[in-house]
Amino acid sequence: MDVSLSSAADLKSGDCQIMEIIQYNCELELSQTENPVIRCFPLSRMFRICSGRPGVELTRSLTVNEDGVVELPTNIK
User: Pfam families from the entry (predicted)?
Assistant: First the structure.
């Protein structure tokens, strides 16, 4: 069974979608002079979802340009 990643052509054909989820990493900051504070930071995770295939996380493979546009590498297969 071939479970290779789909290509950029699959994204253009409409069989696949890039989807994003936002997770939060939270930490409890303790201070001797103030009440404890919970600080949370967003973590964006990107996935490729193709019909009939398992979802694949692309977060480490993608680049986000200065305008916030996600750039899909041409070598994803």
Answer: Mitochondr_Som1 (PF11093)
Dihedral angle at the C-alpha atoms of 72, 74, 75, 77, nearest 10 degrees?
A: 70
DSSP 8-state secondary structure symbol assigned to residue 39: E
Token reading at 8? 């950029």
Write the CB contacts of 40 (distance below 8 Å, at least 6 apart in sequence): 24, 25, 26, 27
The torsion region of residue 61 among left (phi > 0), alpha (psi -120 to 50) and beta comes to alpha
Token pair for 40 = 């949370």
- Rounded to whole angstroms, the Cα distance separating 77 from 75 reads 6
Tell if the pTM clears 0.70, that is, is over it.
no
The residue behind tokens 């052509």 is 9
